[in-house]
Amino acid sequence: MGKIVGVFTASHAPGLTGFPDRAEPGERAAVQDAFTEVRRRVEQLAPDAVIAVSVEHFTNFFLSNLPAFAIATAESFLGPVTPEMAAFLRVQQRQYPGCPALGEHLYRFALESDFDPAMVAGELFFDENFCVPMEYIDPRSQLPLVPVIVNGVNPPCPTMRRCYDFGSMIRAAVEAQSFADRVVVLGSGGLSHWVGMAESGRVNEQFDRDFLARMESGDRHRLIDYTQDQIEMAGNGAHEVRTWLIAAGAAGSAFETLAYQPVSAWLTGTAIGAARL
Q1: What angle do CA 59, 65, 67 make, to 5 degrees?
Q2: Which of 150, 166, 184, 253 is deepest in the core (most CB within 10 A)?
Q3: Ranges for the Extradiol ring-cleavage dioxygenase class III enzyme subunit B domain (predicted)?
Q4: Across-strand partners of 275?
């Protein structure tokens, strides 16, 4: 029987790796110290695999085919997707190892649990969604990954309730398999930010702090009690917080906020959290 031994959440703003020095020194240090703590905890947990949940920014899916959820099952994943993006993110392009057996199990379990995700059996390319947080958490790319994509880039998106319940399904799926005894879940996205909009560079600190308080409460009802319009007030990029809801469902517990900084220079309300398992 497998077990989720750790659940973490993090923003994936390109500035975290691409232009960290644009942030104020205190902001940068707080975020980088929190990532260092996550890396330390993950190394102590020694997981057999990481189920990494994020959005993707029209790197693989487009408006003609934009699934609500997708699960990737390949042996490896190329990221960043192009040399140009690698240079922008300042992340060396590489192959990230996959965990096909766990991914295939998760896909089948999802279907049996009345979810209908897309299955990506071939190539899935990474952008900042996974490359940025993994550069801090697993810089040598040794941990096998099962990438999970949720649509948090183009409304209509799955409801917050549906995302939380998808996370609960992930926990049950992990416990029903023996391919990976020890599993870490990572949710990557958000918080408030505007992408390609006139408001780009703004941060809705009030939304961010309220959202983090709900994560810290561990109260499912408070976490799912959002309308699409409420999230939109924190920017079109704020829809990425669905990745945190999936992580919360996988944890089934309260979270601690390891860092929060409203970094306008990174165009993002930047936060890192860990479940109190």
Answers
A1: 85
A2: 150
A3: 7-258
A4: 255
pLDDT in tens, 209-254: 999 999 999 999 999 999 989 999 999 999 999 999 999 999 999 9
Q: Are strands 182-188 and 3-10 parallel, antiparallel or unpaired?
A: parallel
Q: Report the share of the chain in percent with pLDDT over 70.
A: 100
On the question of a cis peptide bond just before residue 212, with omega within 30 degrees of 0, the verdict is no
Q: Are 146 and 98 in contact (CB under 8 A)?
A: yes
The position carrying tokens 């990976």 is: 180
Q: Quote the DSSP letter at residue 204.
A: -
Nearest to 35 by CA among 258, 260, 198: 258
Residue type, position 123, single letter: E
- ∠ at Cα 227 (10, 59), nearest 5°? 45
Compute φ and ψ for 188, nearest 5 degrees: -130, 120
Structure tokens at 238: 């704020």
Domain over 3-275 is classified CATH 3.30.470.20:
no
pLDDT score of 116: 97
Tally of residues, the chain: 277
Per-chain mean pLDDT for the chain? 97
Supply the pTM of this predicted model: 0.97
Per-state percent for the chain, helix, strand, coil, to nearest 5: 40, 20, 35
Domain range list for the chain: 3-275
Region 83-88 average pLDDT:
98
